Amino acid sequence: MVVPSSSPPLDLEVARGASTATHTVVSFHGRESTAHEDELAVEEPLEIRLAGHSLAVTMRTPGHDEELVAGFLFAERVIASRDDLDVIAHYAGPEDDPRIGNVINVLLRKPEPAVWKRLERNFFTSSACGLCGKATLDAIGLDLPPMEESLAIPLDAFYAFGPTLASAQATFERTGGLHAAGLFDPSGRLLILREDVGRHNAVDKVVGHMLQAGRLPLSRHILMVSGRTSFEIVQKALVARIPVVVSVSAPSSLAVQLALASGMTLVGFLRDGRLNVYTGQHRVAAS
């Protein structure tokens, strides 16, 4: 057995704003071991401030932070379009301030009193659960109209989504530690992909990108996520008016309920030429 000459370092150095970091690991194959450098997906907190007031903290992978915040505010219906945003920028302070790169402040063009009333609750989100800090189920209720988009997507296009998403996950390929969200058109063309340690963060980055580009609503698009489909992912798709949500894994019961109530198409277990349609089968063109 090969014994490493020294122990792995205790401190993990992460460059400011980096999405990956290197770390010495010891790999075993049977009884043989080798020490080598491995790439890890970076997870760091991002504090979101509204006019200087702390609104939320989310654990995310650095990169496309402005998109993440724009998508988050849109999903929370703090903003309705990019025109509502005046400034969205990282906190600027002394170079040695540890908050540099991990705080974003947002100024709205016309902050309405109703916005502040909706934000009376203060919530903390983690990379695994975007709803963990919301006080009650009433806080996540929606009053959006059901989706009536008559989009029809060929079955072969569905089967192509998975390989296309996987081949575009550059950081996951190096780390194995990130989720992905991809936005497709009905022909199966990947328009944008974002990666993050949190599934909901990746979705916020995708929606935030399209919001900043002035391309909402997304009623002729398909959202695919690399993990399971939670209620919040379906909720974010509904707010962005995305009629079809696809995943390589299972949806939760609440995700299925919301998709049913909202007239959305929800597809799960999209793997190796097979899939399950949980709601909205009329948008799956099998012939």
In words, what does this structure look like?
This protein is α/β, with parallel strands linked by helices and 287 residues long. The protein has 2 domains: 44-139, Ubiquitin-like (UB roll) (Roll); 153-285, Cytidine Deaminase, domain 2 (3-Layer(aba) Sandwich). Helix content is 24%, strand content 30%. The chain has 7 helices and 15 strands. The protein has helices spanning 65-75, 113-118, 155-167, 170-175, 199-212, 231-239, 253-262; strands spanning 20-29, 32-41, 44-50, 53-60, 85-90, 103-108, 123-124, 153-154, 179-184, 190-196, 222-225, 244-247, 265-271, 274-279, 284-285. β13 (265-271) and β14 (274-279) form a beta hairpin.
Key attributes of the depicted protein:
287 residues; alpha/beta; Cytidine Deaminase, domain 2; six-stranded mixed sheet; five-stranded mixed sheet; 24% helix; disordered N terminus
Q: What structural class is derived from the secondary structure elements?
A: alpha/beta
Radius of gyration: 20 Å
**Share of helical residues:** 10-25%
Can you tell me the residue ranges where pLDDT is under 50 for at least 5 consecutive residues? 1-10, 133-140
Q: Report the CATH superfamily of the largest domain.
A: Cytidine Deaminase, domain 2
Element string (H = helix, E = strand): EEEEHEEHEEHHEEHEHEHEEE
Tally of separate domains: 2
For the largest sheet, list the strands in their spatial order. Answer: 10-9-11-12-13-14
Short synopsis of the structure:
The protein has two domains: 96 residues, Roll (Ubiquitin-like (UB roll)); 133 residues, Cytidine Deaminase, domain 2 (3-Layer(aba) Sandwich), CATH 3.40.140.10. It is built from seven helices and 15 strands.
